[in-house]
Amino acid sequence: MSRTILIVDDDYMNRDLLQAHMEVAGFQVLQANNGKKALALAASQQPDLILMDVRMPGMTGIETCEQLKTQPDTAHIPVILITAYNDNETMRQAQAARADDVLLKPFDVHSMFAKITVLLSPQT
Questions:
Q1: What is the pLDDT of residue 123?
Q2: Domains along the chain?
Q3: What is the DSSP pairing of strand 4-8 with strand 28-32?
Q4: Beta-bridge partners for 53
Q5: Which pLDDT does position 96 carry in this prediction?
Q6: Sheet harboring 79-83: ordered strands across?
Q7: Is the entire prediction scored with pTM above 0.85?
Q8: Number of other residues whose CB lies within 10 A of the CB of residue 49
């Protein structure tokens, strides 16, 4: 059974690159270019995991994550926030929004898939 990943980024090149990596690994992929679309897709499609950029116009990835984690129908979906900002405030905000993990740019594909594997593994 194929798993689904929702990729959320306002930059289409980043979305397409991540989608290519996910599809090679056997994942189904959904895309959203902003937080509002991500919230709607997450609620209707129930992806297995969300990869989301932090800095987006309008609703940031942190704000979107916070909303996802407070809604009963999406709170269970693991969220990995992607950011180039490795500062204490961004990390504090990601933790406060209940992000499941943070991936720092630039990142290698192996570390991304390691985080995904951990979050999608059955909890014992």
A1: 65
A2: 4-120 (3.40.50.2300)
A3: parallel
A4: 82
A5: 95
A6: 28-32, 4-8, 49-53, 79-83, 101-104
A7: yes
A8: 21
Instruction: Determine contact, residues 100/76, Cβ cutoff 8 Å.
Output: no
Place of tokens 């129930």: 46
Residue 101 corresponds to which amino acid?
Answer: D
| Sole residue written with tokens 């989608």 | 19
100 contact partners, CB below 8 Å, separation of at least 6: 78, 79, 80, 119
Helix (H, G, I), strand (E, B) or coil at 47: coil
Q: CB neighbours (10 Å) of residue 41?
A: 19
**φ, ψ for residue 41, nearest 5 deg:** -65, -40
Three-class SS state of 103: strand
Average pLDDT over all residues of the chain = 94
* Burial zone of 21 (CB within 10 Å; 0-12 exposed, 13-18 middle, 19+ buried): middle
Residue 124 has pLDDT above 60, yes or no: no
What is the reported pLDDT for 85?
84
CA dihedral 102, 104, 110, 112 (to 10 degrees): 30
